[in-house]
Write a structure and sequence with these properties.
0% strand, mainly alpha
Amino acid sequence: MPHLVADAGLLDINGTLIGEVIGFIAMVLILARYVYPPIIRIATERETKIAAGVKAAEEAEKRLAEVQEQVARTLAEARDQGREVIGRAHRDATVEAEEVRAKARADAEALLQRAQAEISGERDRAIQELRAEVRDLVVEATSRLLGETIDRKAHQRLIDESLAKVADSSGTRAGRN
C-alpha cells in the first residue's frame, strides 16, 4: 500500500472528484432554486422594513423638531399675551385709580360747596334774626324817645331806614378793611 499513496496527486481527476463536483453543483442548484429565493426575499423584506423604520424615525425627528418649534412659538405667544394682559391690567388699574381720585376730588368739592352753602344759609338766617332783634330794639328805643307809640306803617319805614343805614355803614367798613 505504500505504493498507492505515493502516486496520488493533489489534482488527480478520478471518480470521487467527479462525484463531489456533481454533488456540489446539485447542491448549488437546489439551494439556488429552493433556499436562496426565500432568504433573498426575507432579506429584501427586512431591508425594506429597516429602510421604512429609518424613514419613519427621520419623519418622527422632523415632526418632533416641528412640534418643538411650535411649542416654542406657542410659549413665546403665551409670554407676549401674558405681558400684554399684565400691561393692560396695569393701565386699567391706573385709569381706575385716577377715576377714584377724580371722584374723591369731586365728592370733596361737593361736600365743600354744601358746607359753604350751609354756612351761607346760617349766616343769612343769623342776619335776619339780628335784623329782627335790631328792629325790635329800634322800635322800643324810638317809643321810649318819643314817648308815644307810632303806627305800624311809620314803624316799618323807620326800621327799614335804620337797617339801610346800618347795612351801608357795615358795607363801608368792610370795603375799608
